[in-house]
Amino acid sequence: MKILNFFRSSPAAESKELAAFLSGFSIEVMPKTLAKIDDFAGLLPKGTRVYVAHIEGTPIDDMVATTRRLTEDGFNAMPHVPARWIDSRATLDTWVRRYAEEGGARQALVLAGGARKVTGDFDSSMSLLETGLFDKYGFDRLHVAGHPEGNREIDTDDSNRIVDDAVRWKQDFADRTDAKMAMVTQFVFDAKPVIEWEQRLRKAGIRLPVHVGVAGPAKLQTLLKFAVACGVGPSYAVLQKRAKDVTKLVKPFEPSDVLAQIAEYRARTPDTLVESAHIFPLGGIRQASEYARGMTSPEAKA
Questions:
Q1: Cβ contacts of 190 within 8 Å, gap of 6 or more
Q2: Which keywords, in A-to-Z order, does the entry hold (predicted)?
Q3: More confident of the two residues 168 and 237
Q4: Is residue 185 part of a domain?
Q5: What is the SS3 assignment for 202?
Q6: Quick check: is 63 in a domain?
């Protein structure tokens, strides 16, 4: 399949495909952001999966309180559990127990974390999953990270060897446990690397669903800053190209183009792993929520 020539549907079809793709979107929020919003329950459809982003230094009490509030508001709260910030198995046990018992969570995003230095006993999502603690406390859905553009902090030789090995391990873990698993990707600005990666995964026998990360509406300068900080790969060129057009510098960047291309690919590929979209609200949680709801409204599906 030649990806560059793949997208040929009509505008009406694209609208329906995009609305269908986004209908099960997830989003994330930081505790300090949620604390400033009185009416968060009115921003999103009930049942939306909301990741609780664990920024380094955030007290676990704040993470648990945010998880509890989201659960009480009718959302599926999914706290981040970053391996490299956890100093011991006892700490992990405490965190997972509190998320379950106090926060009402039954879902978690298990990841290595951005810190290069390992704090304690864990250095990867796999080392956290192998403890069995998520199963012990009744977590039935566990998401892990996917890297369609690679990860230079993991594969320092610019190959994908280690991240590919990790995906195979995660598939094996899913096969030998009862956990419902999916991979959520870093935010991307181009559909091509995602589609090529997804095709490569299927060819290798991977069956884990993929939730494609995109940046919500934001100023271009904001996205450029986050893209550099988060190590976004080849799709960064999309932002660089846009930055050369002075007329677009003052307009918020929206992920509609990349989402539409992935949505069409998903609609035309029955066995695709692409399942859903995850929105990183880099330009603000309200803007991202309004965008997602607008794209999934009845008018958008018409």
A1: 234, 235, 237, 238, 258
A2: Oxidoreductase
A3: 168
A4: yes
A5: helix
A6: yes
Average pLDDT for 103-111: 98
Q: Is residue 44 part of a domain?
A: yes
Q: Has residue 51 got a pLDDT over 70?
A: yes
Expressed as residue numbers, the domain containing 37 is 3-296
Helix (H, G, I), strand (E, B) or coil at 62: helix
pTM summary value: 0.86
Total count of domains within the chain: 1
CATH number at residue 18: 3.20.20.220
Tokens of 225: 């800053």
Residue 301 located in a structural domain: no
Question: 57-60: long-range contacts (C-beta < 8 A, 24 or more apart)?
Answer: 58/30, 58/31, 58/32, 60/94, 60/95, 60/98
Asked if residue 77 lies in contact with residue 54, where contact means CB atoms within 8 angstroms, the answer is no
Helix (H, G, I), strand (E, B) or coil at 21: helix
Amino acid at residue number 264? E
Residue 117: count other Cβ atoms within 10 Å of its Cβ. Answer: 7
- CA dist 193 and 206 (Å) reads 17
